[in-house]
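C-alpha cells for chain A. Residues wanted.
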C-alpha cells in the first residue's frame, strides 16, 4: 500500500491522539480515518443505496375506477 505524508497542526494532532488513545500521531490519524470510513460503510449498509429504492418502495396503484 502506498504511503502519504500529511502535515497537521500540532494541536489537531494532539487532540486526535487523545481521542484515539494512542501515543503516536500517525497511528492516531490512521485509526480515526479507518473508523470514519467504517462508519460510512455501516451507514450505507443500514440505509441502502439510492439505486435500491425500487426494491423497498410500495407499488403505486392507479386511480380507482368506479
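Reply:
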Amino acid at each position: 500500500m502506498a504511503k502519504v505524508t500529511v502535515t497537521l497542526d500540532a494541536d489537531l494532532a494532539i487532540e486526535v491522539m487523545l481521542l484515539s488513545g494512542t501515543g503516536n500521531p500517525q497511528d492516531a490519524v490512521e485509526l480515526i480515518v479507518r473508523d470514519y470510513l467504517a462508519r460510512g460503510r455501516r451507514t450505507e449498509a443500514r440505509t441502502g443505496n439510492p439505486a435500491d429504492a425500487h426494491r423497498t418502495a410500495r407499488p403505486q396503484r392507479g386511480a380507482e375506477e368506479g
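Helices lie at 10-20, 25-47, 53-56. The chain has three helices and no strands.
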